[in-house]
Design a protein that fits this description.
about 325 residues; alpha/beta; TIM Barrel; eight-stranded parallel barrel; two-stranded antiparallel ribbon; 12 strands; about 15% strand
């Protein structure tokens, strides 16, 4: 019996051949680097569960942004650790808020970076939930009104893109209407459209100091067992005016990324979240895996699933490794 004519291994023999026929080509062009801004000056404190990631004052954020720009990473997303917290997250709206000041500082430094701001109240409320509490529950419509004003304050500070992550119903429409009313019709919205209630967020809650003080977020973030519902959430956000949509987390939801990519002809993002980052870092520190190889494989897999935009704490390392290739 003769051997089959087709030998797929022919195209795997050398790196040059493998590179020639590679279907998914990872680059820095779609990477976004998350950063945590805190009050003060000359503050740079490492997050214990996220090696290499820092809570930083605006002046230090600017310095790291210079590095991000030099690595060819096109943008960042900012999360804020405010000076004060209260039941309604009032400091989220302040023109002197930590995120607003950081955006202004980046603009003053004339860095060629896309500046994305997270729009949510969990970092700003004293109870740690993503909205206003009424009758023991997160009140959707009262929260949406505050989120729209928060997004407006970010736009006034100079943000390019606002990214609502709260999962309140109708918030994209309210934000779009408010931005347009105030002549910010060119500010884009990246909606956390399919954000799941996930155990992978643990390290982020340390970094952003945003852990709920009671209960959990199952009443507004999505159930991990649902995929069809994600398509409904994406469809609603696009109807309300979202320009781009995101799936969060990434690794346990690659099927959802793929479904969204196939169903909608818009830019699709995915958030390679803190727990995914921390697991790789912890294993690498114990020499249980090759960090470079695993990180690039993870990011390639997320892109292969259909995400053009990847928010990842690995962005700087990945950019260095890709540049060296």
């Amino acid at each position: 019996m003769s051997f089959p004519t087709h030998r797929p291994r022919r195209l795997r023999r050398t790196e040059a051949l493998r590179g020639l026929v590679r279907e998914t080509r990872l680059t820095t062009a779609g990477l976004i680097y998350p950063m945590f801004v805190c009050p003060g000056t000359k503050v740079r404190q490492e997050v214990s569960s996220m090696p290499g990631i820092y809570q930083q004052s605006a002046d230090q954020i600017v310095e790291e942004c210079r590095e991000v720009e030099s690595l060819g990473i096109p943008g960042i997303i900012l999360f804020g650790l405010p000076e004060t917290k209260d039941a309604r997250g009032a400091s989220a709206l302040s023109a002197e808020g930590v995120v607003q000041r950081a955006v202004e500082a980046i603009r003053k430094a004339k860095l060629k970076l896309l500046v994305i701001t997270d729009v949510c109240l969990c970092e700003y409320t004293d109870h740690g939930h993503c909205g206003v509490i009424e009758n023991g529950d997160v009140a959707n419509d009262s929260t949406v009104a505050i989120l729209a004003q928060q997004a407006l304050s970010h736009a006034r500070a100079g943000a390019d893109i606002v990214a609502p992550s709260d999962m309140m119903d109708g918030r994209v429409g309210a934000i779009r209407e408010t931005l347009d009313e105030h002549k910010f019709e060119n500010i884009a919205i990246l909606a956390y459209a399919a954000k799941y209630c996930s155990g992978f967020y643990g390290p982020f809650r340390e970094a952003a100091q945003s852990a709920p003080q009671f209960g959990d977020r199952r009443g507004y973030q999505m159930d991990p067992g649902n995929a069809r519902e994600a398509l409904k959430e994406v469809d609603l956000d696009l109807e309300e005016g979202a320009d781009m949509v995101m799936v969060k987390p990434a690794l346990a939801y690659l099927d959802v990324i793929r479904r969204v990519r196939e169903a909608f002809d818009v830019p699709v993002g995915a958030y390679n979240v803190s727990g995914e980052y921390a697991m790789v870092k912890a294993a690498a520190q114990k020499d249980w895996l090759d960090e470079k190889r695993v990180v690039l494989e993870i990011l390639t897999g997320i892109q292969r699933a259909g995400a053009e935009i990847i928010l990842t704490y690995h962005a700087k390392d990945a950019a260095r490794w890709l540049k060296a290739c």
